Amino acid sequence: MVSFLIRRTGVMLLTALCLTFCVFFLTNLEPNLEKLTKSEGNQRMTDVEVQSWLEENGYRQPLLKRYGEWLGVAQGWTRTDEEGKVSGRCIKRGVPVEEAPKHCGLLQGDWGFSLVFKENIDGIIKEKLGLTGKLMLCVLLVMVPAALIIGVIAGMREGSKTDRTLSTFSILTTSTPEYVSGVIFIIVFASKFGGLRWFKGTAATAMENITFENFTLPVITLALYGVGYIARMTRASMAEVMNEQYIRTARLKGLGFSGVVLKHALRNALIAPFTVIMLQIPWLLTGVVIVETLFNYKGFGWTLVAAVGNNDIELLLACSVVAVFVVLVTQLLSDISYVFLNPRIRVS
Amino acid sequence: MERLTASEIFIGLLTQFTPVWIGLAVILAFSWLFRSKLGLYGKLFGSPIGVAGLILVLFWVLTAIFADLIATMDPLTQISGMKNKKPGWPVSGEEGQWYLLGGDNLARDVFSRMVHGSRIVIAIAPAATIFAFMVGVTLGLPSGYYGGKFDTVLSFIANLVLAFPVILLFFLLVTPEIRETGVPLAMAGVLFLFPIIFFLMLFYSRFKEQPPKLAFSVIVTLVLGFWAYSGLAFNKDPFGVFYMDPNLLNIFVAVVFVNSPTVFRIVRGLTIDIKTRDYVAAAQTRGETPWYIMLWEVLPNARGPLIVDFCLRIGYTTILLGTLGFFGLGLTPESPDWGTTINEGRKLLAVYPHPALPPTIALMTLVLGLNLLADGLREESLRD
After folding, report:
1. What interface predicted TM-score (ipTM) does this complex get?
2. Which candidate, B162, B148, B380, B382, places its Cα nearest to that of B272?
3. What global pTM score does this model have?
4. Which of A18, A29, A323 is facing B178, going by the closest CB pair?
5. For A320, B45, B224, B240, which has the most beta carbons within 10 A of its beta carbon?
6. A6 vs chain B: nearest CA distance in angstroms?
């Protein structure tokens, strides 16, 4: 078990390094840097001026060195100009040169400065993750019980009419991506066209004050796409368990159907869906970006879109690190929980 | 001229789709008559869910084929006075012409845009899925069959791509800046090689002992393959037959890149399972080459799950293409594809909902059709 954990964590760290390097490479492509220079300086800079600006601000070092600086394992660059004024990656405005640290990167907790929001990135990320966290919590609270109930009821009596209906419903939800269901929900429940004006079509006010009216549509939109998949997994696993010998034994010894389902089948049937739920969290990320854009909820996904749209390289890198981290940690947790929950694997 | 009523719009839509109804009737009738000779496809007619899926998919395929006949207007022409007009509005200045589903924000016909949008989706999604399968199969078979270091490295790379959040990958890979650097071209150069390698190995392993057949098939593959390759990947086709717009190439490559690791994992898993079977051992005893066993023994026996996954994956690719359009990545803003149209329509959703609704329903029904089809196929293939 311990060696399994160590090996998995090692692979995870290696994956994280490779992925962040890929992101770093793709965000620091030459045209992006030129765009950055022009938005920092001015739009009418000549090519020579652009090159000298990039040179002065440390963008012309080898890529690996810059990645190291950003990560915080290599020393930040410093540069002394003709007047003897020292500038550098870690030398902030208003701080004497002697007090500036040698390393300043991700590992030191220095996430950089956002050009769009004109704020330190760690503050932005914390705030936006909080907002998205609330959304995700509501989504999981709706999605997981709904999906498990649908799956268990469908799998309980395989091939019955209830099973057919619920399975078709699951297929329907997996065929409806967030940008389709969101648009339909807004038209039906939030516009004069649908006639019912039960909810609001925007969640902008939910950032301060979550109400039933402004938060229902984003949560339902996001939950719906995931429900079908988890429900189908639960159904398959439930149907398999219901065909086992020990279920037949329990039935034959005279236990009622509900007793069999609740006491014997449920616990074994829920192992597989549980690991699937963990793996759904990174899947939700795409949905979060779509829903936050559609409903104008300024959380993590919205920030990611803003960072891409405004060529805010440091913010985009920070968002990517968080996204990659979430994916890898949920994968690890899913692996561990699978081993933990399944006695057959745990013993061997 | 009067505005059309709801029932008149409905009848108008039914009449416009006439070529599709005829096509559907012909195809379904012939498939039904010869269902006993059509293998898995024929058995599909035993499952109502599968038939429903097949009808939905055929509907959109036929719509894409007959788009020019079905559409009432040009998808890009703007007619003054038709901006955001409600469904069934008569075209100003033209007798007997209506905007059946209304006009969008730029005064274009919503219905014709939806119909022409199906062309883009139906053309890209299956093609991208086929390429993803070529990559996944060509790498997954040896990875599962040989195992060892080769497998470890490839699996690590596949997991690397899978750990990348899809949306982030799209934001990074589908941008005008990245097109300037030529990264998509390089990726296309690598990814588009796999179909050629696949067919070369396929023919080589089969006809190794028959030099005339081998020479013929290899030469045909090489000539056709590299002809298409030069045009699609680098736009250097000397005859100008194969061509892909740089924006389109960028999207195509990104979608193939996202899909291939999953296909790789599925094929690898199936290969590991199938290579323990007796017929593989028999082929090994006969002295067949590893590539013959992989391509002519393992692959045909893995076709059931692969066909099901192929259907599901086309649906997923359609969703991915819609996502790209929704964020305005890749295709031009005036493109009639469904994702882009939804993105344009959502901005005025509270006031004018009608431009956004038709493409959402179109996309949903196509994906639903593919998913139902996959479900029907899975049920029928499990039955024997």
Report:
1. 0.86
2. B148
3. 0.89
4. A29
5. A320
6. 17
